[in-house]
Amino acid sequence: MTAANDPTDYHASAAAHHLEAARFHREASRSYQIGKDCGHAADQAVTAHGHALRALEHAQLASACYAEYEGSPLPGYLARSSDKLTSKALALPISLSGSGHHAAAAGHHDAAERHHVQAGTHSGADHYVRACHETRNALDHGKHALFHGDQAAMHHMEHYGSHPSAELV
Q: Which among 12, 48, 50, 147 is most buried, taking Cβ atoms within 10 Å?
């Protein structure tokens, strides 16, 4: 690894964007729950989406740094405890409200942030295979968060129309 392609910087940036996205998704979820106007929730959701896209961009840059380690097995005991649940997260039917989708997105952003922090730690210690696996988990959670953000947007359109300042009824 060279200093010019230091993935720890990408991980730190992705983690920060995931934290911001989670914060905005929680605010959007609360807005729906307490009956604030939908315009406020929509603004929060758009901001969360922007942070999610920026986090995904930085995660992909970090992942590219580990290209030579992609598909490598984790060493020893780590292989048995690897996080395999994220790939199955969307296998179940989804029937959440807009608020529920925002809350689910926030949870996935929180998980992605934790994986990026761990990946940065592994990368800093030159444990690139471990960092690669943590990055893959972070990317999976980030994609699930984007899915739930998209579902929340569709829920908004179906229930409140295209006018972003529509009031809850």
A: 48
Q: Which two tokens stand for residue 15?
A: 């983690």
Which of 161, 28, 25, 151 minimizes the C-alpha distance to 90? 151
Report the b/e string of 55-85 with b at 16+ CB within 10 A. bbebbebbbebbeebeeeeeeeeeeeeeeee
The domain locations on the chain are 3-69+96-159
74: left (phi over 0), alpha (psi -120 to 50) or beta: beta
Q: Which residue type does 39 have?
A: G
- Model confidence pLDDT, tens digit, residues 84-139: 444 444 444 468 888 899 999 999 999 999 999 999 999 999 999 999 999 999 99
Q: Which tokens hold the place of 57?
A: 């961009």
Model confidence pTM above 0.90: no
Helices (H), 37-127: 38-65, 77-80, 98-124
